[in-house]
Amino acid sequence: MSTVIKSLYSNQFEILDAIIKLHVEGDTFEVDVTYGNGAFYKKGLPQPTHRFDIDPTLKNTTKTCSSENTGLADASIKSVVFDPPFLTYIRKQRVGNSSMVMAKRFSGYWHVDELIKHYQATLVEAARILKHKGIMVIKCQDIVHNHKLFCTHAHILNWAAPSFRLKDLFIQAATHRMPAPNRKGTQKHARVYHSYWIVLQRWAK
User: Fold this and answer.
1) pLDDT computed for residue 57 by the predictor
2) Three-state secondary-structure class, residue 164
3) Is the confidence at residue 122, as pLDDT, over 70?
4) Whole-angstrom Cα distance, residue 187 to residue 176?
5) In angstroms, rounded to a whole number, what is the distance separating the alpha carbons of residues 46 and 66?
6) pTM assigned to the model
7) Which of 42, 104, 163, 166 counts the most CB atoms within 10 A of its CB?
8) What are residue 52's DSSP bridge partners?
9) What average pLDDT does the chain have?
């Protein structure tokens, strides 16, 4: 009997493997627009054909460009993966927070409007370069911003609706405490211990 693919894992490599087996042609993604240091591929997953990052760690093998403007031809790609920053208030370049531990460990946005703009523009670019029925995979995490819960994964589904349909959804449970800025005061929201992996399918209307 074949192994059943689940919706919940605690390991991102298991999720990546599951998504590829179910939804991606070939044995890896065709495009990674937030390649970074290639962490997704360190457990044996073959490298994507196109490796992009706005500030690449591996400059010799990664093209420097924004996920909002890849330069790829219209409807030329079958699969793309997007693992953007998800935190706010911790951006390294901002005055006053460059010494924060979170700013040293993670990329992020100063305000949620920056996150929204980046996510929306990347969805538009992915819709442009993906073929009909092509797959876009997004890793994200919900956050608390200005003392309010910002349900990132739900917003992504709304932003994607004009060009994509939801194909699948995976949850990655944390094996350790998920990152968050240190703040004093009474806790008002549940601490986030999971990430979402959203599988979208390009659907021309």
Assistant:
1) 74
2) strand
3) yes
4) 19
5) 22
6) 0.84
7) 163
8) 63
9) 84
Could you give the domains of the chain?
A: 26-179+190-202 (3.40.50.150)
Lowest average pLDDT, out of 34-43, 138-147, 161-170, 173-182, goes to: 173-182
Q: What are 71's two structure tokens? A: 């330069």
Tokens found for residue 78: 């079958």
How far apart (Å, rounded) are the C-alpha atoms in residues 46 and 140?
Answer: 22
More confident residue, 10 or 144: 10
Rounded alpha-carbon distances, angstroms, from residue 181 to 18, 42, 97 = 32, 28, 11
Local structure of residue 68 (DSSP, 8 states): T
Specify whether the CB–CB gap between 70 and 52 falls below 8 A: yes
**Nearest Cα residue to 67 out of 136, 165, 19, 132:** 136
Residue where the block lists tokens 């986030």: 192
SS3 125: helix
Tokens of 29: 């993604």
Cα separation values, 142 from 77, 115, 177, 198, Å: 28, 12, 14, 13
pLDDT digits (tens, 9 = 90+) for 87-120: 655 555 544 444 444 444 445 666 778 888 999 9
